[in-house]
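Posting this for the archive.
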Amino acid sequence: MIGELGILSGINHVILEAIIALIPLSAFFILFQITYLKLPIGHVINLFKGIIFTLFGMILFLQGVKVAFIPAGEAIGSFFSAIGKPWILIPFGFLLGLLATYAEPAVRILCYEIENSSSGFIRGRLILYTLSLGVGVAVAFGMGRIVYGFSFLPIIITGYIIAIILLWFADRDFVGIAFDSGGVATGPMAVTFLMALAVGAAAGIEGRDPVIDGFGLIALIALAPILSILILGIYFKKKKVNVS
């Protein structure tokens, strides 16, 4: 049954990629352990156990992405394009962008670190909601670009100009968080599923090119958290002024 579903199709390549990805990090640690760290053997054993768990986790996740997320994203994008109502991709993209960011493990880690580092002043859940809404809007905008054929270059240039302007008005505590959030939000959930959705949608809409119109969504997803967190930073700055 597994073979018929193709669940293990191409898993040998995935295993090889995961091993290659972890070898440099493992070698780097071994080098520092021998030359500088000199950690107790128990710590070293636990670390390599963690590396093994990470290896299996990467293999399972990447294989799942390959056989499920990417084909599903392409199929959903093609479906909405084929039914003659491609505009539905816009609200649907907002919902998927919101849910994908909410489920992104890297985003959860970022939110935890922000709340922990700020001693609870900046709530992690507030950051999570802000990022999810921001990415949802960005994906909806990206779907609108595919449906109506907006040019990508003016959008991305205008977005970063706005981000630079917002830097002057936002609380300085949020500047680093904002730009880190842009990278964190473009994690495996967004890249694998939402990019496949965009490519599938562009392939199904007449007059759209999957390469020209299907790509660029991840750049918008990376920009959205920067803008949304900086706007949140402006709110916090005003809140500090009112309190003082």
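DSSP finds ten helices and no strands in the chain. Residues 41-82 form the longest helix (42 residues).
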